[in-house]
Amino acid sequence: MLLVGPGGAGKSHIGAIWARATGARIVHADRLGEASPVDVASGPALLVEDADRIGAEEAALFHLLNLARENGVSALITANRAPDLWGLGIADLLSRLRLAPIVALGEPDADLTQAVLFKLFSDRQLAVDPAVVSYIARRIERSLDAARVLVAALDREALARGQRVTRAMAAALLRDSDEE
User: Is this model's pTM higher than 0.90 or not?
Assistant: First the structure.
């Protein structure tokens, strides 16, 4: 199965939960050349992270998936994009990946964005007024990566100013990010 979605959508988190539940071996696509396909494909399950960053390890992924199938190993593959967009040169690999079911994770809605913002602020031990969080959630790019970047920037700015995160501070950072 392929788990596809934008950065920060939760693919690795879901993959880690699945790996724990299944006893899967985890390998990052850009490090497939360092791993022994026989060893990696010998467990009950296999998690291949960031497969769209496969690069020169394309043949290694092809052989690994073949071994996994031969050994009855379940495989979960995470990527930002569908396999047709990876620029694969091995037609048989692309064909096999096209046959796998794809679960696509979309961008978060405003409610999820707001919940994530609260969590990110809490992780940094920042108490932020709910009205400020709501303001940010309505205006931020709909991506969890964008939320992480903005919270880190607000944390730095609040520390530099020696004050709490405010709506004006958030507005200024959002305006600056729109201009970039």
Answer: no
What pLDDT does 22 receive? 95
Q: Cα–Cα distance between 149 and 143 in angstroms, integer? A: 10
The model's pLDDT over 101-133, given as tens digits with 9 standing for 90+, comes to: 999 998 888 888 899 999 999 999 999 999 999
Please name the residue that has the structure tokens 């020169």: 56
CATH no. of 110-179: 1.10.8
Name beta bridge partners: 79. Answer: 4
Closest residue by Cα to residue 61 from 39, 28, 85? 28
d(CA 82, CA 102): 8
Q: Which CATH class is domain 2-104?
A: alpha beta
CB 15 within 8 A of CB 49: yes
For residues 125 and 159, is the Cβ–Cβ distance under 8 A?
A: no
Q: In the numeric block, which tokens belong to residue 99?
A: 């046959």
Q: Where in the chain is the domain with CATH 1.10.8?
A: 110-179
Long-range contacts of residues 80-85, Cβ cutoff 8 Å, at least 24 apart: 80/4, 80/5, 80/6, 80/7, 80/50, 80/52, 81/4, 81/52, 82/2, 82/4, 83/2, 83/51, 83/52, 85/52
